[in-house]
């Protein structure tokens, strides 16, 4: 299990690093395009928008995958806390993991169909940059596959009673290691003054 966790840690670190590098590259290329726009006798860098659009998709998927593993994404817990009270964290986590895996698998399959169709039909983009369309479409497969992997890890952690990576204990059995509700967290933050 430790080897698997270390492998997943490495994959997460690689995804996070790739996302940071992509955002940095978008910023630097855009900055260069803005500066070079005011240099006389140099053609504008028309490929900046195309490259930025392609890289942004990758950055979003890497960021979503990292947030999924760390359980740091936005959650709507109001109704679950209202209806289920103490069992809300348990129910939310199970529903989130099942729905997340389902959505990611569907996205993977649709991304594969799109990329495969583009590859078979030899579709290419002929703008300022020329490239086969299946290359950027691979991110539509890789991103959801990475998220599926992290959702599976979260399910295994919950089934084995291991703490999630966000440091908040959520047991599969209600009543054991339950998470305080968002409202209770806010009340504690107000008391602490943070």
Query: What profile does the largest beta sheet have?
Result: 2 strands, antiparallel
Low-confidence stretches: 169-186
Average of per-residue pLDDT values: 81
- Strand order, main sheet: write it out: 1-2
Secondary structure class reads mainly alpha
What is the helix content? over 70%
Instruction: Tell the overall outline.
Output: elongated
Q: How many individual helices?
A: 7
| Total count of strands | 2
N-to-C CA distance: 37 Å
Number of domains: 1
Strand content bin? under 5%
What is the H/E order? HHHHEEHHH
Gyration radius from CA atoms, angstroms? 21 Å
Which features would summarize this protein structure in a list?
194 residues, mainly alpha, 7 helices, 71% helix, 3% strand
Structure description:
The protein has 194 residues and is mainly α. It has one domain. Helices cover 71% and strands 3% of the residues. It contains 7 helices and 2 strands. The protein has helices at residues 2-37, 47-70, 78-84, 88-120, 134-137, 139-160, 182-192, and strands spanning 124-126, 130-132. The protein has a two-stranded antiparallel sheet. The longest helix has 36 residues, at 2-37. It is elongated and about 65 Å long. The two termini are 37 Å apart.
């Amino acid at each position: 299990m430790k080897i698997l966790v270390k492998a997943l840690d490495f994959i997460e670190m690689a995804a996070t690093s790739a996302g940071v590098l992509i955002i940095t590259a978008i910023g630097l290329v855009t900055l260069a395009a803005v500066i070079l726009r005011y240099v006389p006798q140099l053609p504008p860098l028309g490929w900046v928008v195309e490259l930025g659009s392609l890289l942004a998709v990758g950055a979003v998927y890497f960021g979503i995958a990292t947030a999924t593993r760390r359980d740091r994404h936005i959650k709507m817990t109001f109704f679950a806390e209202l209806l289920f009270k103490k069992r809300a964290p348990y129910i939310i986590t199970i529903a989130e993991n099942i729905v997340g895996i389902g959505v990611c698998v569907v996205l993977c399959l649709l991304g594969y169909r799109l990329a495969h169709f583009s590859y078979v039909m030899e579709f290419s983009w002929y703008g300022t940059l020329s490239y086969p369309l299946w290359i950027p479409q691979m991110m539509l497969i890789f991103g959801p596959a990475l998220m599926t992997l992290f959702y599976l890890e979260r399910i295994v952690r919950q089934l084995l009673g291991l703490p999630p990576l966000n440091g908040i204990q959520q047991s599969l059995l209600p009543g054991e290691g339950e998470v305080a509700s968002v409202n209770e967290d806010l009340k504690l933050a107000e008391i602490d003054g943070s």
